[in-house]
Amino acid sequence: MMKNYLPVINTHFTLFGGHVETVRPGWKWKPEEHPAFELMYVIRGSQRTITETGEMILNTGEFTIIPVETRHTNYAVGNEKMTYFCMHFDLDDPTLKYLLIRSYADRIITSRDAEYQDLKDQVEVVMQLFKSKYDLEDQLDIQIDVLKIIKILVKVLKRDHHLQDYQNDINQFMLCQKIASDLKHRLDYEIYHASDPKSVSISKVVKSHHVSQSYVLKLFNRYYGESPQEYLIDLKLSSAKGLLLQPRVQINEVADKLAYSAPSHFSREFKKHFNITPRQYIQDVSK
């Protein structure tokens, strides 16, 4: 006879807070990364979000989820004020982390998506919970309602039969993500801390994980859709966008920080990647 029982669940969930803010036209926030997921919801206006691997324009009513430890920069777009809601959360269950990263990184959730209306309704429930002080019951309500948001996101994947496929290759994905994270951290050191920036050695990073370069190439092509070298170029040029918007910065200074042999090489690669020159990018964003 089959017994009815509940499973053992030992998942640690943390909410690092959330807020609603209205910002002026032209507002921008410095590049940053968090040890948590960030859910962003544009209530009114438009926002440009630049991550390590892509760029998105979120319009009124749209969402995105920025993965753990992903550097990103946000800008208000247009001539009107922008109002947005964001919250930061994390959970230590590797499968849930995997699903959220694999399925929602660099993606805009719009009214055309199956999860949109449920997600919008539940986020607005959470936004109604704002108070100046919170007692224990309030905190439990917030945890429950934020977990409902995560459930909505995962439920769509389960319904679309992605869940089992994702669980089967989670270990490979987590290894790929760890190598990608190491590449990012080494690049960050060269850009922001090294007195004489050098090119990051992909082979040294791969070797530190005791796997072959051919195996890592397969992982990156499978999970990121590009080679480790292409991924590293994406990181460099995404960082370049943030560096180019610093006050009074020179293009040759950015090229040096990114360890390009010459400013012309940097400009060619930037234009090839974004179909716009660094100077045109500065002028375009500054409008």
- Cα-atom radius of gyration: 21 Å
Poorly predicted residue ranges? none
Tally the helices: 11
Q: Which structural class do you get from the secondary structure elements?
A: alpha+beta
Biggest sheet strand line-up: 1-8-3-6-9
The general outline is: globular
Tell me how many strands there are: 9
CATH superfamily descriptor of the largest domain: Regulatory protein AraC
Provide the CATH top-level class of the largest domain: Mainly Beta
CATH fold title of the largest domain: Jelly Rolls
Span between N and C termini?
A: 71 Å
β-strand amount = 15-25%
How would you sum up the major sheet?
Answer: 5 strands, antiparallel
| Series of secondary-structure elements, N-terminal to C-terminal | EEEEEEEEHEHHHHHHHHHH
Number of separate structural domains = 2
Overall helicity? 40-55%
Pfam families: AraC_binding, HTH_18
Protein name: AraC family transcriptional regulator
Organism: Lentilactobacillus diolivorans DSM 14421
InterPro entries: AraC-bd, Homeodomain-like_sf, HTH-like, HTH_AraC, HTH_AraC-typ_CS, RmlC-like_jellyroll, Tscrpt_reg_AraC-type_HTH
State the main characteristics.
287 residues; alpha+beta; Jelly Rolls; Arc Repressor Mutant, subunit A; 2 domains; 11 helices; globular; transcription; transcription regulation; AraC-bd
Explain this structure.
Residues 177-284 form the HTH araC/xylS-type domain. Helices cover 48% and strands 20% of the residues. With 287 residues, the chain is α+β, with helices and mostly antiparallel strands. Strands 1-8-3-6-9 form a five-stranded antiparallel β-sheet. Strand 4 (46-51) and strand 5 form a beta hairpin. The protein is globular, with a radius of gyration of 21 Å.
